[in-house]
Amino acid sequence: MRNLLLTLSYCGKNLHGWQIQDNALTVQEVFQNALYQIIHERPDIKGCSRTDSGVHANMYCVSMKIAHPITEDHLMMAMNRYLSDDVAVTDVRQVPDDFHARYSCKGKEYVYKVWNSRVRNPFLQDLALHYRYEMDIDKMNREAQAFVGTHDFTSFCTLDKREKGDFTRTVKYFNIKREGDLVTFTVAADGFLYNMVRIMVGTLLAMNNGRIEFGTLPRIIEGENRKLAGPTAPSCGLYLNKVFYQ
Amino acid sequence: MRNLLLTLSYCGKNLHGWQIQDNALTVQEVFQNALYQIIHERPDIKGCSRTDSGVHANMYCVSMKIAHPITEDHLMMAMNRYLSDDVAVTDVRQVPDDFHARYSCKGKEYVYKVWNSRVRNPFLQDLALHYRYEMDIDKMNREAQAFVGTHDFTSFCTLDKREKGDFTRTVKYFNIKREGDLVTFTVAADGFLYNMVRIMVGTLLAMNNGRIEFGTLPRIIEGENRKLAGPTAPSCGLYLNKVFYQ
Looking at this predicted complex, what is its ipTM? Predict the structure, then answer.
């Protein structure tokens, strides 16, 4: 059995996230079905994380152990023939037996895209949040630096049964950049809670709108209470962008 | 009656070009229906050109004379509420009575996008041609300079009933640029024949593949015969990018 690491990218517009569900098409299902047609195996597939319905991935990692002797390159090309157009395999490589796409992961980077114009962009339907109001990028950037470091992020987590135990995470960087009318939020951390990036972005946008006061982010974090933070920004703007190993 | 110039952008993925047709949804139909809901008028709408099914526009211009007193800005915002998500109005302004979106046009710029990688890009489905083979950008760029200037472009026109009379056009510039795996062909001319850009791109790609010899472009142009040129590249990569007036 070889342990393989596969790197994917996918457009989440028509997909219900990574993890297999009843009655909804997910990336994992699309992936497993394509794989079965090529190697006639149904290995246990480890995804690097869950992603929500509508969320995209520029980079998503999967590991699995297979018996079939197909070369890595052939597997990549064959997967791209059998997968639907909204999912692509961009790399396949052999990894040590103890490698696990989720448990070996040292951190991840997400980006959140906002189309900031009075007029929508027809090419970014379901690929960015359309936000009509002026954005004070510098002010949001300064505020967002309060996220950086090791904190309990309870205020930035949708509480549900999935999250248990420790809500402490370490945010490595958080920055916001404008290129024309496209504004991109970029955040890296050792791990993320459920909806964490979307609530971070939603809170900064609520500050930009004046619904939450600028300067209060440290207090919102310290409060450890979801109600203190802003709304969860829509899934369409969110991209898993990088997955870090080693 | 005010004469108005409206600037649009649209994603052509699910649309059958500009011009109204039976049994196929076109940009003109979507536009007229939205307009009627706002001003209850059905003015004669002049589009700056036809575009084919599946072709996109970063900029498309329309002129029309209306009696309704709605302000230009209100019309823009209202149109964006009533239009489908794949069409947007980005500007509305009053123009002199004799302005005509098509006849006043002095030239246009098209871009053609190619995703040049062994693996498809899930975010460019129907938004770029996926081309797997290595591209010699420098060689194609040098070859393409033969397009620049005033020529009879019969070899680069799908002959049909639409095209009559003079096949002479003046190409102002033609360049090809790579940014990562995305290659963009940009061409401007005083006017374009039916399928002209797509045949130009198809011919350069056929040269890149070795199916047509590099260095023969001047002879293909002089031959004034569609059969000498390469295939028509797919519509999905083509964008009307700029429309020049005055």
Answer: 0.92
